[in-house]
Amino acid sequence: MRRTPLTLLLAAVAVLPHELAHALSARLAGLDPEVTLLPTWAGEGTPLGQFDAVIDESTPAWVVRVIAVAPWLTFVGCAVLLGPVLRVALPPVVGLVVTLLLALWGSLSAGDLAVAGNPRAARTAGHFTVPTAGWESGVADLLTVGTVLLVAVLLIA
Asked: DSSP letter at 2?
């Protein structure tokens, strides 16, 4: 994908909050996170953003897992907090837009699931990029649908 100001802006809106949720949780765990928009990628698909941080064998598996799923925890948590405000104070169309954004940013990628499912491989590799086993893409798709529904219920039901 060409790196133009417009593609960077669109990528930032689409994925930067998601990647920053990973980065914030990594920073809270004492790691030094990096976020890249429109990264160079040799693997399958074309990611719009990438989070990474150096980890080692001493990093607890639960820390790796929490960082991997941090966007889901962050943005579903935002839906829990924003739901009462949106239902009372704002028109339904705003609730719909916020639902879509929080669900987009909170949805987990196949890579997020691969790291959460195999933190040992991430620790061995020394960073948050783990090869997918094949099941992650389908599960990520199902979780995205579930995340949209959950966020919608929390915000506008």
From this structure: -
d(CA 104, CA 106) in angstroms, rounded, equals 6
Give dist(CA 33, CA 70) in Å, integer: 13
CB 47 within 8 A of CB 7: no
* Residue-wise pLDDT tens digits, 15-72: 999 999 999 999 999 999 999 998 887 777 778 899 999 999 999 999 999 999 999 9
Asked if 38 contacts 8 with a C-beta cutoff of 8 angstroms, the reply is yes
d(C-alpha 100, C-alpha 86), whole Å: 14
Q: Which DSSP string corresponds to 15-81?
A: HHHHHHHHHHHHHHTT--EEEEES----SSS--SEEEEE---TTS-HHHHHHHHHHHHHHHHHHHHH
CA distance 106 to 99: 10
Identify whether the C-beta of residue 108 lies closer than 8 Å to the C-beta of residue 143: yes
